[in-house]
Structures are given as C-alpha cells and as structure tokens.
Amino acid sequence: MITPQNVCRHELIGLEIYISNSTNPSQIGITGIIVDESKNLLTIHSGNGLKKVQKTGLKIDLHLPDETRLRVDGSVLVMQPEKRISMRIKNLR
Asked: Whole-angstrom Cα distance, residue 64 to residue 54?
C-alpha cells in the first residue's frame, strides 16, 4: 500500500499529479495522470494530450489511492524507477 512515508519506493504510474511549482513557468498547473516515468522525466496524460516534464526543479502534488495529497520535491525522484523502488528508505533521506 502506498503511504506518504513510502511513496518514493513505489511505482508512480497511475497516480494523479498536479505541478504546483516548477523552474519552467509553463509547467505550473499541469494536472493529469502519470503514464510513464524514466530517470529524469515524467510523462503526464492531461486534457491536452501527453506532457513530458523534467523531475528536477519540480514540486508536485500526488494524489494517493486513499485520497491523501502529498507534496514531493521532484529531485528526490531523479533516478531510474526500478532502482528507486528497490532502494532502502534510509538512502532516500
């Protein structure tokens, strides 16, 4: 189960996302569902199609399945998803 304490160790694909802050002003306010993730990019399906955004420089709000909202710094997520999922939590702090 995804919780605020372990969200960094889980798959992000399928979660609702809102970009609350970004170094690229045109990305602020993008909402949608994460459909793909690579080391440096998130692909978001929004009402206007697919948007690719860099993780670095983002502050994102994730909507977890239990309706919890969580603000995450995108730089914490910069690594290959398969490596991030298998890491110990103490390495992400």
From this structure: 21
